[in-house]
């Protein structure tokens, strides 16, 4: 059974853009609410590359790698047999075929650095996963069941599109 590349996927609506309290000229901190999964998002974003304003709706996905599901499922065994699975996946961003990134407008590479599951209360307890994308930070807060695939220390891609 193949494991999915996508750790999290949902649509968000921007509720606030913090431009006044920021320390960097080209970075905004956005606050957004999930449309389907009742999640809350705080994200530092390069506002010159991907400007967002209050009320904008965007899709956000977090993926383990950029290999599309179709290619990953069929080609994984062949690549592993050839001994090049890791190399092919890691260098996909350099090739003309951008994989999942081709379907999105804004992509960042980073790491999951903290998982706060301090909220007690069973399955519906509030949980927060923290990510760092080269200093641009993200906090994704909500039900544990939507963050069950988050693993601290794992490298991930953040993919966004309007």
Automatic annotation (TrEMBL):
<keyword id="KW-0539">Nucleus</keyword>
<dbReference type="GO" id="GO:0005736">
    <property type="term" value="C:RNA polymerase I complex"/>
</dbReference>
<dbReference type="Pfam" id="PF03870">
    <property type="entry name" value="RNA_pol_Rpb8"/>
</dbReference>
<keyword id="KW-0240">DNA-directed RNA polymerase</keyword>
<dbReference type="GO" id="GO:0003899">
    <property type="term" value="F:DNA-directed RNA polymerase activity"/>
</dbReference>
<dbReference type="GO" id="GO:0005665">
    <property type="term" value="C:RNA polymerase II, core complex"/>
</dbReference>
<dbReference type="GO" id="GO:0006351">
    <property type="term" value="P:DNA-templated transcription"/>
</dbReference>
<dbReference type="GO" id="GO:0005666">
    <property type="term" value="C:RNA polymerase III complex"/>
</dbReference>
<keyword id="KW-0804">Transcription</keyword>
<comment type="similarity">
    <text>Belongs to the eukaryotic RPB8 RNA polymerase subunit family.</text>
</comment>
<dbReference type="InterPro" id="IPR012340">
    <property type="entry name" value="NA-bd_OB-fold"/>
</dbReference>
<protein>
    <submittedName>
        <fullName>DNA-directed RNA polymerases i, ii, and iii 17.1 kDa polypeptide</fullName>
    </submittedName>
</protein>
<dbReference type="InterPro" id="IPR005570">
    <property type="entry name" value="RPABC3"/>
</dbReference>
């Amino acid at each position: 059974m193949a494991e999915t590349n996508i750790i999290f996927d949902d649509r968000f609506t921007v509720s606030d853009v913090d431009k006044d309290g920021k320390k960097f000229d080209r970075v905004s901190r956005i606050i957004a609410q999930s449309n389907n999964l009742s999640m809350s998002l705080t994200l530092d974003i390069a506002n010159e590359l991907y400007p967002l304003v209050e009320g904008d709706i965007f899709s956000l996905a977090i993926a383990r790698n950029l290999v599309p599901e179709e290619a990953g499922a069929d080609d994984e065994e062949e690549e592993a047999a050839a001994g090049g699975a890791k190399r092919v996946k890691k260098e996909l961003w350099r090739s003309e075929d951008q994989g999942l990134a081709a379907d999105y407008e804004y992509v960042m590479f980073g790491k999951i650095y903290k998982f706060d599951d301090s909220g007690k209360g069973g399955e519906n307890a509030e949980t927060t996963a923290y990510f760092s994308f080269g200093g641009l930070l993200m906090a994704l807060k909500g039900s544990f069941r939507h963050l069950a695939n988050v693993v601290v220390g794992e490298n991930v891609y953040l993919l966004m599109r309007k």
